[in-house]
Amino acid sequence: MPSFDDPFGQKRESGDQQRQIFTVSRLNSEVRRLLESHFGNLWLVGEISNFSAPSSGHWYFTLKDEQAQVRCAMFRGNNQRVRLAVNGRPNSQNMHGMQVLVRARLSLYEPRGDYQLIVEHLEAAGEGLLQQQFEALKQKLQQEGLFALERKKPLPKQVRTLGVITSPTGAAIKDVLSVLKRRDPSLEVIIYPAQVQGADAPAQLRQALATAIRRNEVDVLLLTRGGGSLEDLCCFNDEALARDLAACPLPTISAVGHEVDFSICDFVADIRAATPSAAAELVSQDQQQLVRQLQQAEQQATRAMQQILQRQRTQLVHLRQRLQPLSPQQRLQMRAQQLDDWQQRAEQAMVRRLRQQQQQLQQLQHRLQRAQPGHALPALRQRTEQLYNQGVRAITQRLNQALSRQQAAQQTLDIVSPLHTLKRGYSITVNANGNIIRNASAFKPGDELRTRFAEGEVISEVRQVNP
């Protein structure tokens, strides 16, 4: 007898010789395995009806169109990831009639024998189309290199003026201004108003971007708005806006939506911030931290200045010790003392010479007395007088030469002496520490200075410094 394969892989012959008997449970189980193995994941679009969400957390509903319907189940582990714009918890009222796009696998509920869809992903049908368009544009721009890291510009180290493209009445600008007021009130903000939602939003955003580029009055440009659905944020997925943003010569930051939201502008901009507040923190500096850094720098500068002053004081004392013997007044005193010393030595030499002459004279007198050289006495007296006169002239000449040298040295010292310079109308200016000042930039208004003249000294206060 002929034989054939049944759908479940069981061979049976025609007739009643080999009859395969199934239980209902086995049949439903075999059908479920057949459905699950034959069909993979399916994407379906339809309208929700008969929605229920029991305390278990699972969702049960019917997905239908104009001509047919199918039962669906979505378990808690999957439906917790669903983001839908519904009022409160999903229920039969706010979910009824919603057009959705689902990804599901075909199965069969064995206890009732009903075939059903096990839904793994669910989103609003409109958002599903927008998401597909978003992914297509993202892939296109990425292949063109608009997302490449090497084309992104770094932010300046210090931002003085921030440009913000956003709605002037939205929550985003309020968050940005609140953060800047707390962290850096000195940062200037220029708002380029534009709609951030709706059909006219892309054109207005492009116009605001062009205005900011043309004016070139900001250091960083921030494109931002608050959170919303994918449809609300779709204006930031505009291809023309993305290309204008990529060509912007200013550093750009994109902060669109909440932390989990991404837009095409986020990928094109130089930096992406999770929220408007996070973007404000990126461009601002914490003033308290700057104050602490300035205090530390001031302490370090004070310690360094104290060390420099101590070294300068030590060097000044050393220089004073070196300059003290070379002081003009003391050099004059030293020369005068040397002159006195030379005079005393000359007088002593003259006295010694006279004593020697006297001794010689006495010796000669004794010899004359012994020899009675009466005829030689006048000649000897004359010779003695000559020697005496020669000695006096020699001593006088030595003294005059010494005085001439002393006067010449005194004149030379007087010429190079600062006192001589002062007598010609010049003056010497020193600061409160006694240091001679050669540059006006060493003073600042309010400093005390001392000016020494040829006669007297003036103490004054600096009113103005002209370097």
Secondary-structure map:
Blueprint: E1 3-5, E2 11-13, H1 24-38, E3 41-52, E4 59-64, E5 69-74, H2 76-79, H3 92-95, E6 99-109, E7 114-124, H4 125-143, E8 161-166, H5 171-183, E9 188-193, H6 201-215, E10 220-225, H7 239-246, E11 252-256, H8 264-268, E12 271-272, H9 276-283, H10 287-323, H11 328-371, H12 377-416, H13 418-423, E13 428-431, E14 448-452, E15 457-461
Parallel strand pairs: 5-7, 8-9, 8-10, 10-11, 11-12
Antiparallel strand pairs: 1-2, 3-4, 3-6, 4-5, 6-7, 13-14, 14-15
Structure, explained:
The chain is an alpha/beta fold and 467 residues long. 47% of the residues lie in helices and 19% in strands. It has 13 helices and 15 strands. The strands form 4 sheets. It has a 5-stranded mixed β-barrel. A 5-stranded parallel sheet has the order 9-8-10-11-12. Strands 13-14-15 form a 3-stranded antiparallel sheet, with no helix packed on it. Helix 5 links the parallel strand 8 and strand 9 (188-193). Helix 11 packs antiparallel against helix 12 (377-416). The termini are far apart. The model is unreliable at 1-5 (pLDDT under 50).
